[in-house]
Amino acid sequence: SYCEQFITVIKNLVLSCLIISCFTCHSTLPFKSLGSARFFFFMYLKEVSYVIKYFFNLKQALRGTGLLTSDPRLKDCMQQIHQAVQESVGTAMMDQELFRKCVGSNIVLLTQAFQRKFIIPEFESFTSLINHLYYNAQAQKGGKVANYIPQLAKFSPDLWGVSLCTVDGQRHAIGDTNLPFCLQSCVMPLEYALAVHEAGTEQVHKYVGKEPSGLKFNKLYLDEEDKPHNPMVNAGAIVISSLLKPGSNKAEKFDFMMDYLKKMAGREYVAFSNATFQSEKETGDRNYAIGYYLKEKKCFPSGADMMAALDFYFQLCSIEVTCESGSVMAATLANGGICPITGEQVLSAEAVRNTLSLMHSCGMYDFSGQFAFHVGLPAKSGVSGAVLLVVPNIMGVMCWSPALDRVGNSIRGIHFCQELVSLFNFHNYDNLRHFVKKLDPRRQTGHERVRPQTTFLISHNANKVKLKDKNMCPDSTMDTEELKSMEALESLV
């Protein structure tokens, strides 16, 4: 079919462009895209052309790699393809210049994708296992929807969604992943990370501690230094809200935080629920009590307005995301503060390290110790039913199901996280060398584990192209013995 032809050809094209570039340039750029694209377009396609509307059906080809056609990094490529389809008449064919124009700006990303060089190379196999975990968790019953905030009580306990985003921007979602819900306490690590990024660790921890409290998240209780125990409980988050953008008015603070969260989410869905905000204010007696207690103990920085800090805290808890946008936020933390789908540095490495440390020890209310023991990953839960999970250097996950257990964590979210580390070696203390009973999705299978240099041997249809003549790659430093070794690998292709 045309679609199968497209998948085969585009994989070979982008793979070949990268290989030839290794031997044709030594510049700081990975390849000379114009020359490589032209060379392989004619080498592989020669007189063969494809109908534009079929050749440019990228969606199916990208799905297996984990990339979405809506990925911001592919914006230019997708626009060029759309324009080519719109301008084509009948069976208009693609030529070399059109090909170069469409994929040239994204050749590196496409090469990584089709060479399976992303953090999770076998993405389709991985996501099929994720789906299995999702359905297992869906079978978990019981729990109650939070009802002390009226707006939260309106959600069905049967809602359940899981979305993930890797540090390379691979995406997967299953279930109710496009329904907006409020971050609630899941905003606490994001708020803290921004405070550390802006003011520094030392300044922030003058006002808030680093220890788990062992108490319910909304207790009127401080540590021995008369500071909130950590930024992941209500008292700590209220104090942190007073440290953000000091000297600014309420509107400026809110806009500042919203812009930051949108950067974290790669400009995906981030909104504000005014109804939840009003509901929080009307039913927030406990938080007002905490605020006055903090004021009595002089926990706020000099000149801070306690009521303004509470208002800002209520606003932050009322910010809406979806599982999809929330997973990108988690992936930004997993990626050292760099948003995977935009490449923007949102947070400093110091802010991310501190945030993940506190999420690991304090992020799951008074279930934090159990979660750290069994799951061993940084996470933060919220009474909306959200669980923001970070697998450092691999991916971020957002789970959401409004049915909560007795301590306020999502029943399905907890079950999913536990099953995830039971299947994959994601626990912080899984031994990667000797713990062979778990799966490592970062590994390639079969002949794909062979070093990238072995891709000298490229197959297109039934014809093999062997780059054995060093005249084809005059800048190569490989000696005769290495070339012989490459020839010996032909049987693997």
List keywords for this structure.
single chain; 493 residues; glutaminase; Recoverin, domain 1; Glutaminase; Beta-lactamase; glutaminase activity; 20 helices; ANK repeat; alpha+beta; Beta-lactam/transpept-like
Query: Which CATH-level-2 architecture of the largest domain?
Result: 3-Layer(aba) Sandwich
The stretches of 5 or more residues where confidence is low (pLDDT under 50) are 18-49, 447-479, 481-493
Backbone shape:
globular
Mean pLDDT: 82
Report the top-level CATH class of the largest domain.
Answer: Alpha Beta
Q: What does the main sheet amount to?
A: 5 strands, antiparallel
Q: Supply the helix-strand structural class.
A: alpha+beta
Task: Work out the number of β strands.
Answer: 12
Strand order within the widest beta sheet: 3-2-9-8-7
Rg, nearest Å: 26 Å
Beta-strand portion reads 5-15%
In DSSP terms (H or I, runs of 4 or more residues), the helix count works out at 20
